[in-house]
Amino acid sequence: MPELPEVETVKRTLNQLVKGKVIDRVTVNLARIIQRPDDIDQFAFMLAGHRIEGVERRGKFLRILLDGLVLVSHLRMEGRYGVYAGSDPVEKHTHVIFHFNDGTELRYKDVRQFGTMHLFQPGEEFALPPLNKLGLEPLDPEFTPGKFKEALKGKTSKIKAVLLNQAYVVGIGNIYVDESLFRAGIHPEQPANTLTDKQFEALHQAVVATLAESVEVGGSSIKSYVNGQGEMGMFQHRLKIYGRQNEPCVTCGTPIEKTVVGGRGTHYCPVCQTLN
User: Fold this and answer.
1) Which sign, positive or negative, has the C-alpha torsion 5, 11, 16, 18?
2) FPG-type domain: which residues (predicted)?
3) Cβ-Cβ contacts under 8 Å for 222 (sequence gap 6 or more)
4) Are the C-beta atoms of 143 and 151 separated by less than 8 Å?
5) Is-contact 166 59, C-beta < 8 A?
6) CA-CA distance, 18 to 196, in Å (whole number)?
7) DSSP per residue, 171-221
């Protein structure tokens, strides 16, 4: 699933590719992608004639800002956007097409068909699902060690499971949780409420640094992720722990182990990340 760095990268490329374009009409080939409104004809009617003013991100969601509407899009497992000429062949699994009045098209393709789109009046999207219960933004200047600790205060679950919960901190998926915990020297099964102030500070720093570094290189292309221009991310070449089971730890040389935490495959070094 695209995580914060990947969605941030898609946001940036879409701003380059579609900002200022006017939607002439919309084609929906798979109705279940459209969650709000629940009528695809109404969805298409509402969008026709609107201009894209920009694209923003909230957690793993894209907010496509139009003149008078906001389209909230979640890529889920393998959703991707691309801009094409109207004459280009439409690829298989292309479920939604935004036809622009300049002859180009923004196409949403999703092999797994898990992606979603919600249409709102401006500002309304923050009071309703799926954005209304999201936690702190880890790359926001207001994401301080103090606020991070407060968000996790009293949580007795394993720290990895807590970090994966989007109600506390958004956008840190499986890859970046493993990487951040390794950088901070914290075992993924450590109960969140047992972390010391020093560990919270180290983890906060690790989360911010890991996500920022990944954004710099366009995210991680572990499976099928590409940005809006069809380009792969490069952060997978910098991973220190994720996906490296049985390989030597880059710090101490101990073989990296893998377990399951919160239903997700979890990589850690048994020496650098001891369970207290």
Assistant:
1) positive
2) 240-274
3) 175, 236, 243
4) no
5) yes
6) 46
7) S--HHHHHHHHHHHT--TTSBGGG--HHHHHHHHHHHHHHHHHHHHTT---
CATH topology of domain 145-268: Helicase, Ruva Protein; domain 3 (1.10.8)
**Was 112 annotated as part of a binding site?**
yes
List residues with catalytic annotation.
2-3, 60, 264
Domain boundaries of the chain, sorted by first residue: 4-127, 145-268
Give the right CATH number for 4-127 from 3.40.50.20, 3.20.190.10, 3.40.50.620, 3.30.420.40.
3.20.190.10
Does 267 appear as a known binding residue?
no
Question: What does the pLDDT look like over 127-177, one tens digit per residue?
Answer: 999 999 999 999 999 999 999 999 999 999 999 999 999 999 999 989 999
Element (H, E) at 8: helix 4-18
93 is in an annotated binding site: yes
Provide the b/e sequence for 230-246 (b: ≥16 CB within 10 Å): eeebebbeebbbbebee
Reported pTM: 0.90
